[in-house]
Amino acid sequence: MARIIDVIEAPDQGAQQLVVRVPEVGSGDFRFGSQVIVRESQRAVFYRDGKSLDLFEPGRHTITTANLPILSGLLRLGTGGRDIFTAEVFFANMREFTDMKWGTPEPVTLRDTDLGLVRLRGFGQYTMQIADPKRFVDQFVGTQGMYRTGQINDFLRSAIISRMTDMWGENMTSILDLPRLFDELSAAMRATLQDDFTAMGLALKQFRIVSISPTEETARAIDERASMGAIGDMAAYMQFKTARALGDAAQQPGGAGGTGEGLGLGAGIGLGAGMAGMITNAMNPQQSATQPGAPAPNAPAAPQPPTPPQPPAAPAVMTLEQAAAYLQVAPADIQALIDDGSLQAKRIGTQYRIARKAIDDFLAG
Predict the structure, then answer these.
(1) pLDDT (tens digit, 9 = 90+) per residue, 317-343?
(2) Which stretch of DSSP H or E encloses residue 299?
(3) Cα–Cα distance between 337 and 306 in angstroms, integer?
(4) Is 111 helix (H, G, I), strand (E, B) or coil?
């Protein structure tokens, strides 16, 4: 014999329960005259054959053909003394859920006007509320006994990250400008996501960006950018970085024909000379502007024969083009000598560095 449910309610709906189903499994047997108790923070939706039907607002309701018009018409009830029907009732929790969090599972790669490419992570919070119980039940709940916030959080997070990535890509200039734009970005995200939430039967009440943080690689680039700003001279900073990279690479073991030692010596000489010139120019700007060989201010004036121009000294470590200029040949000729092993060189990434000593040894041999 069917068990008829005379009082339909969900008195213990938890704070994390979006929807509670009565009964939890299968369909319930109800009859006209049964009581439906809907609390202030709830809405009750009658559900049958995979479709939401009638909606009850807060209060105590007696089931009649008047307050179940859709279901009554569907079942053709109220005639012939038939007053028992089967259905499910979903109690939607209408409170505002304030403990929802979002975050990027993987860093997002973006263009940056100051750093080139950056990789960022974002974290934040949002609050939401069920706005259309019937639509929400139709789209997300279905036949589940209850639906918690944790079950829908992954789906909502994916929608948020997709929109957030698109917005960052359209509005990103520099990560250095982002902290002052948190409020503007949060408001823009809320407006952008509102239609997505409405389509699910939800309302996005608040959206907040708590943090946008760089990855370790991007953080190091920011530190270097700050160091460059402290130095002030872009050319000097790039020379320093290049010399340090060459010195580090030359100290690594390996290299054909034992050129590692020669390259290490050459890179060390080049680094020392470059650093010495930078320090001298920085501390003695007036003196550095004076040409070598100029007479002292107090020296007696005397006619001096014109000094013939001196060719620039070749660096201790050369690029492919510098080596070609040193030997007065084409860069392709230098590349050919390196490829056949006649000239020893050190490959660093996609570039070659050649010690002047190696070129002199090649000429001597």
Answers:
(1) 999 888 888 888 888 888 888 888 888
(2) none
(3) 40
(4) strand
